[in-house]
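Quiz preparation item.
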């Protein structure tokens, strides 16, 4: 995911692998779930990351499902202990 770091520059606060790959339960049809938490989110960042995921899908025949969020939204998920936050805190692997 060096390309995502380059595309988002110094804005990345944290990155996590989660889902079936983090749980080591992936199948040949599994996607790769990645959470990228940025300090400040813009539509241009979301567009660039979606483009990178599409490039990887075509180039490597894999499906990457990135979730891009900012620190504020992630902290709200943490505060309210959402199912998404629980999944990341229990099974997420910090990259």
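Solution:
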């Amino acid at each position: 995911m060096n390309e995502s770091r380059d595309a988002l520059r110094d804005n990345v606060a944290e990155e996590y692998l989660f889902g079936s790959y983090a749980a080591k339960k992936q199948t040949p049809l599994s996607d790769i779930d990645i959470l990228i938490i940025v300090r400040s989110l813009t539509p241009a960042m979301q567009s660039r990351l979606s483009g990178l995921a599409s490039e990887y899908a075509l180039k490597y025949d894999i499906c990457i499902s990135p979730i891009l969020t900012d620190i504020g939204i992630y902290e709200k998920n943490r505060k309210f202990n959402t199912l998404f936050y629980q999944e990341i805190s229990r099974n997420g692997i910090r990259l």
